[in-house]
Amino acid sequence: MASKFFKGVLLGAAAGGLLSLLDKETRTAVISSSKRNGEKAWEMVSHPRELVAKSKDLYERSTAAFQQVKEDLEYINEKVEEVKKITPEIKSMVKDTKETFEHSAEKYKDALVEDEQQV
Q: What are the C-alpha distances in Å from 69 to residues 8, 35, 50, 58, 66?
């Protein structure tokens, strides 16, 4: 059953492709693209050393880029961990500072009230 389905899909795709070639612009584009791809394939077959050199260069550049991304992610992770450790300390400092200001504000308020009463 599945084989009939896939045969139908392939036949439908082939029929659609052939029908699209009735359009002159499409036909010209397909011919041009086929020629370019054929030339590239022939060049690769004719000069395998260049293909190997280009592939090796691409591999090395990809590996270097991957390594850089890995190092950047490790650095970011390290900084996130530092922030996680520092956050409770900062929270405590802010709380202590708030309490100090609240306590001082009460003292200032008491002092001002005493000064007003004496006047």
A: 46, 39, 28, 16, 5
Dump the DSSP string for 45-97. Answer: HH-HHHHHHHHHHHHHHHHHHHHHHHHHHHHHHHHHHHHHHHHHHHHHHHHHH
Query: 62 is in which domain, residue-wise?
Result: 48-77
Residue 1 falls inside a structural domain: no
Is 35 inside a domain boundary?
yes
Is pTM beyond 0.85 here? no
> Residues 31-90: pLDDT tens digits?
999 999 999 989 888 988 998 999 999 999 999 999 999 999 999 999 988 888 888 888
Does 60 share its domain with 41?
Answer: no
Q: Give the other-Cβ count within 10 Å of 50's Cβ.
A: 11
Contact (Cβ atoms closer than 8 angstroms) between residue 31 and residue 25? no
Contacts made by residues 53-56, CB under 8 angstroms, sequence distance 24+: none
